[in-house]
Amino acid sequence: MSEATWWYRGGTSKHDLHYRREAEVNTTLEELLLYFIFLINLCILTFGMVNPHMYYLNKVMSSLFVDTSLPDDERSSFRSIQSITEFWKFMEGPLIDGLYWDSWYGNKQQYSVKNSSRIYYENVLLGIPRVRQLRVRNNTCKVYPAFQSLVSDCYNKYTVENEDFSDFGLKRNPEWTHTPSSRTAPWHWGFVGVYRDGGYIVMLSKSKSETKAKFVDLRLNNWISRGTRAVFIDFSLYNANVNLFCIIRLLAEFPATGGLLTSWQFYSVKLLRYVSYYDYFIASCEIIFCIFLFVFIIQELRKVNEFKSAYFRSVWNWLEMLLLLLCFLAVSFYAYCNMQSFLLLGQLLKNTDSYPDFYFLAYWHIYYNNVIAITIFFAWIKIFKFISFNETMSQLSSTLSRCMKDIVGFAIMFFIIFSAYAQLGFLVFGSQVDDFSTFQNSIFAQFRIVLGDFNFAGIQQANWILGPIYFITFIFFVFFVLLNMFLAIINDTYSEVKADYSIGRRPDFELGKIIQKSCFNVLEKLRLKKAQAKEEKKMQTTDSAQRARREGFDESEIQEAEQMKRWKERLEKKYYSTEIQDDYQPVTQQEFRELFLYAVELEKELHYVSLKLNQLMRKLH
């Protein structure tokens, strides 16, 4: 039977298999090149969105409004205030001083009231600031009958059901009447509640004296009372030097337990997208990104149409669909943010005496940034699809895929023990230690313990018996036992993968070797590599023969060994080539005869070595 009539796997010849493999190589190289262009374009887009000035603008505004000391109390600031009295000191002191910069440092009048304040002389205050509060109704909680004679009023925590919509205080003024919430306005997640828009709103003035007089009037008439649960301070700035908007929100929460909790948000965003030449370059990259997205969607639809249900059996196809979905969401967020920016900026230019709600834009812009960040993350992860660049990366991929079942089983056992310790810590230390104040905090505190960041003194002080027991047993079982089991699973699997690679069980397709072989072929065509390889091979053969003569071997043995070496190299080149690696390679009768003769010669060589060893052993005895 000749090689031409020998068929492989139901009708596929050896030549056809080689042709298919070459086609697969070309397709993969084209796909890799196209994807790298897409990835570079995406990186330019993402880094073009981030401006180093964003951090410094947020930092200087935080220092001005959060860290400035209160009047007559250098140790307190908005960051640390704990009472209503300190809150009003902040409103009438650092807040007003930070908002209104109407004169130069030499008391020289620099800007008119019409042009608004310029914070730090560079940041224009857009429109007017806004202060609003959310309240809860009285008798929204039940008092135990035995204490009803002592407690007549009861204000529960803030929820939509407990919110107060009625007017109070000086009902004739707008600051004391309730304003309904907008349906499109985002909710705010605070420390002790989730708050919606609306409430009792105070619009400040462009004049510093008028704003201070308004704050004094609100304080004297008890605008903040027992029913108050949150006070928001919102305003926006624009810095033309770096083309950035800074949207600022300061929040003071008044929990049902009493006291005061403060938090803040500083969002520096670029709402005017196209100003400089670099911005127009980014715009061209955005157009290229949309073209890539359209091309990739068409490619995936063709694959789904070709492979049907088999398409969804590959993990890489699921990753491809996730990446396309994220790209589509990013384009949608981008279009929505730009449209809303255009509409809101137009309204602001028409009326500069109103509050511009840029927090709405900042909220969606942050979501857009998050989507882009996740997109670029999975875009880099997709590079592992082309992981056969070299043997090391392929070993890593094989190790992770092989030990996945063991890792899933280990993860179930790990999280059972981890959750048990988290609940124990929350119940025992939750009321005393901040790290265990909630169940979520307990989980993250235990991860920090594993990394070496823990507060053992606080745990021991909260419970001097269970504290050390909890800490020692957690370290023993989680750190010394479970983590070492995880490392053992990885190490054992990696050893198995290395053993398989050492005996030739490599992946069917190694892109790196194909690229290397292509480069060698080019060099050989240019006659730069062929002569050098022949010369090196000739020198190696001459050195081996000379070394054998010095050791006492005769010419016949040397010639026979050289013949065996050439025969072995020829067979290894044929049967261990990287061009075709499959468990079911076709074998002709001529090839089988050559393999049989090679096995016979190996048997003779082994018999000859055995005789030599026996002679050596007899001489030693």
From TrEMBL:
Keywords, alphabetical: Coiled coil, Glycoprotein, Ion channel, Ion transport, Membrane, Transmembrane, Transmembrane helix, Transport
Q: How does it assemble?
A: Interacts with TRPC1 and TRPC5.
Q: Name one GO cellular component term.
A: membrane
Q: Membrane topology per the record?
A: Multi-pass membrane protein
Question: Which sequence ranges form a coiled-coil region, renumbered to this chain?
Answer: 523-551
UniProt main location, coarse: membrane
Q: Where in the cell is it found?
A: Membrane
The organism named in the record is Mus caroli (Ryukyu mouse)
Membrane-crossing residue ranges in chain numbering: 32-51, 231-252, 277-298, 318-336, 366-387, 407-429, 469-490
Q: Which Pfam families does the entry link to?
A: PKD_channel, Polycystin_dom
Taxonomic path:
Eukaryota, Metazoa, Chordata, Craniata, Vertebrata
Name one process (GO BP) from the record. Answer: detection of mechanical stimulus
Domain (Polycystin cation channel PKD1/PKD2): give its ranges.
Answer: 273-497
Q: Give the protein name, as stated in the record.
A: Polycystin-2-like protein 2
Encoding gene, per UniProt annotation? Pkd2l2
